[in-house]
């Protein structure tokens, strides 16, 4: 019986089963939902900031291009 409890496979199985149960319980908890909503909101905010930055860069590039075209026509 001692050898059974020294088995690496047994403890790997037990550890996996405990991890599965704990993860399942946590996934169903209100705290997990709160964290998921906060993560989603944060991700949406980052997306909005990136889109605003890209739009600003695009507008600046268009302005520089338009100025270059005007300069080349003036010469």
Automatic annotation (TrEMBL):
Q: Which domain of life, per UniProt?
A: Bacteria
Which Pfam families does the annotation name?
DUF6110
Read off the InterPro entries from this record: DUF6110
**Name of the protein this chain belongs to:** DUF1490 domain-containing protein
To which species is this protein native?
Faecalibacillus faecis
């Amino acid at each position: 019986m001692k050898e059974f409890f020294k088995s690496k496979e047994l403890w790997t199985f037990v550890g996996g089963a405990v991890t599965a149960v704990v993860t399942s319980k946590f996934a169903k908890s209100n705290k997990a939902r709160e964290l998921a909503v906060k993560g989603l909101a944060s991700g949406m905010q980052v997306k909005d900031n990136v889109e605003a930055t890209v739009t600003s860069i695009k507008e600046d590039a268009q302005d520089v291009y338009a100025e270059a075209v005007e300069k080349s026509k003036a010469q």
